[in-house]
Automatic annotation (TrEMBL):
Residues 1-18 form the signal peptide. Gene3D superfamilies: Acid Proteases. Keywords: Hydrolase, Signal. Its EC number is 3.4.23.-. Pfam families: Asp_protease_2 (PF13650). This is Retropepsin-like aspartic protease.
Amino acid sequence: MKLKYLFVLLFFSIFTDAQNSFELEDTEKTVIPFKLIANLIFVPVNINGADLTFMLDTGVAETSIFSLENQELTLPNVEKIKFSGLGGTASIDGFRSDNNVARIGKNFINRSATLYIITEQDFNISSHVGIPVNGIIGYHFFKNHPIVIDYYNRKITVYHHEDIFRKKLKGLKRLTSQLKKTNLICLPMWK
């Protein structure tokens, strides 16, 4: 009986972890161009048909929108929530939206994206970087795929399988010994 419950718990944890993540469709790898401003990476993200710009940050757990700046965006399954721990002691109002479609490039797609919408205007960073920035994305971008960030050429390559990624590593012998157990490589800004 306990084994049956363990199996059900394991199945649901795998299923829920598989949701809300980006997947490569119909390709072994995809290349995503990015803008590099003040050592920050900005990628184009299409959310439910709206073209937006997100800052890419490996330390961010959830995908958040903090500015739409004249963009029209339709969000399904919206629920009002309170955010806490965003730099201050007070909580602020916001929204959570489930089952969004997020697309980066042609083939990197999350068909069940959960978005957190921060309505507080103090989180707008567009004026600091000089381009409209609509949100921030992190963990769900990096979660399931080996990635190479090429700062010099301003492109991110996402690989479907680790074996294809490892073949790329063989060409980078200088880095291979240092990066054997990682799925993320950052190439320098200079050649």
